[in-house]
Amino acid sequence: MRPWSLLLVALVALPLIVGVAGLPRHDAPDAPIHTHVGTRYLERGVAETGFKNMVTAVLLNYRGFDTFVEVVVIFTALAAVLALPRGETADPDHAPGQRAPADDATGAPEPGDDAVATAAVPATSGPRDGSDAGRAHEVVPVSPVVLFVVRILAPFLSMFALAMLFRGHITPGGGFQAAAVFGAVFIALGLVFGLGRVARLMPTGLQPWLQAAGPLAFVFVAWFGWRLTGFFLGFPIDDHTTQEGMGFVLEVAIGVGGGVILARLFLSMEA
Amino acid sequence: MLLFGLDLDYVAAIVLFCVGLYMLVAKSNLLKKLLGLNVMETAVFAFIVTAGMIEGGDPPIMVQGTSAPFASPIPHAMVLTGIVVAVSVTAVALALIVQIHAHYGTIEVDELKELP
Amino acid sequence: MSDVFDAVMLALLIATAVTVARARDLLAAVVIFSMYSLTLCLVWQHRGAPDVAMTEAAVGAGVTSVLFLITIARTTRQEKP
User: Would B62 be classed as within a structural domain?
Assistant: First the structure.
């Protein structure tokens, strides 16, 4: 326990608690958060946007610019991770640990090694680990229970993600939830079946376009909205069909784009 | 929730924020610092969503099962954006930590400070 | 009754956060962090935020924890005191 850090934390905590003491009770009906623009969104939201899920309406319609910038943020994060040098490109003169010899590749998941599902569990993976040199790199085969469960659940999870995507405007769900579940399904399959099999799920020619699908779709829909209403990313208020169509395009782009980005993040860190 | 002069839900969020801040500042391991950053981020999200609650409130989705009063949808939208930003920051930081370890062999800040 | 649920969940949140801070084994810290994420998801579901709960469940326990585990596999597992 470092004393200066505890002092800093106490110095931060005290004004926060004093400030919070002045706030109204958190579920008071007359708190300012419920009496300003929030009530307008709730009362006139369905009539103006045609969505029943108010959170999706706020995300895509009322606060569309925030979502636009946010898909650019996650795309930039992927670009940053891909811009870093790949793998162990450290200078051998500087790395203090010894690298395990290259023929010790008993555990590395080779592409095409899909006869037996002995994908190495990440906790003991790979002979690339320079710091634990000298330790035997054992491969822990994946338990048949995990194999069975992931095999059975993966199609249902994908269907659930698609359902959340398509029904995001009338039930809890939407673009990001579907993207997170797509990414999680890809990661589960990749951990269990090895990277070789799972990397074939991602079409390499189409991949850059899928990753950029979020920002591109937002620009397209914003241009379309400008042609319709004269405002950038403007949704025509009384035309529910067009609004649902634009919202649908945006949600599919966020879902697919986000899912591909998460899957690519996993692939770039594991490989 | 209960009210001993302070709203306990808000105080819990502040306590979590402070636990995360302590991990970020006091720990020497880079992974621990990143875990502390994540705890701080989720504490802020918890605070924001709690501020949008209303008494007896239903989720802000207009279907047959829900009725007024509704929880405010604006904090939910902000927190969804925030979660995506948190994932992005975590992914970039983890990639950088892997590179630091590959280059210098250590991820402890105390040891990294001693390097020439 | 829902007050008791709230109080128990908040106490569990704080306990797991403190345990993440104190764990020396980084693998244990990440596993407890994913438990913290799941508890937070339950708290949000109780507060009437199902969208946020779904996203936090999928992201916290699914994506973030796995990325942390991959990093631990490629760096070290123990934190030096």
Answer: yes
Amino acid at B17: F
In this structure, is residue B1 part of a structural domain? no
Per residue in A159-189, pLDDT (tens digit) is: 999 998 888 888 888 888 899 999 999 998 9
pTM of the model: 0.85
A79 touching B, CB under 8 A?
Answer: no
Query: Which residues of chain B neighbour C30 with C-beta distances below 8 Å?
Result: 35
Residue B103 domain-assigned (yes or no) = yes
- Verify whether the Cβ–Cβ distance C52 to B20 is below 8 Å: no
> B92 and chain A: CB distance < 8 Å anywhere?
yes
Does any CB of chain A come closer than 8 Å to the CB of residue B10? yes
Rounded to whole angstroms, how far apart are CA atoms A209 and A207?
Answer: 5
CA distance C55 to B79: 10
What's the ipTM? 0.92
Neighbours of A223 (CB within 10 A): 12
Say whether A173 and C51 touch across the interface (CB within 8 A).
Answer: yes
Residue from the list C7, C20, C52 with its beta carbon closest to the beta carbon of B35: C20
Cβ-count burial A21-47 (b if 16+ within 10 Å, e if not)? eeeeebbeeebebbeeebeebbeebee
**Minimum distance, in Å, between the CA of residue A193 and any CA atom of chain B:** 23
Please give the interface size between A and B, counted as residue pairs whose CB atoms are below 8 Å apart.
170
3-state secondary structure B45-77: HHHHHHHCCCCCCECCECCCCCCCCECCHHHHH
Residues of B in contact with C80 (CB under 8 A): 28-29, 108, 110-111
What is the phi/psi pair of residue A53, to 5°? -90, 110
Domain spans of chain C?
A: 2-74
- Domain range for B23: 8-114
Whether chain C has a CB inside 8 Å of the CB on B7: the answer is: no
CATH of the domain at B81: 1.10.287.3510
The verdict on a CB contact (< 8 Å) between A34 and B54 is yes
Q: Is B39–C36 a contact, with Cβ atoms under 8 angstroms apart?
A: yes
pLDDT tens digits for range B39-96 = 999 999 999 999 888 887 788 888 877 777 888 889 999 999 999 999 999 999 999 9
Work out the angle at residue A4's Cα, subtended by the Cα atoms of residues B111 and C18, and round it to the nearest 5 degrees.
80
pLDDT tens, position by position, A79-93: 999 998 876 544 444
Cβ–Cβ < 8 Å for B78, C49: no
How many domains is chain B partitioned into structurally?
A: 1
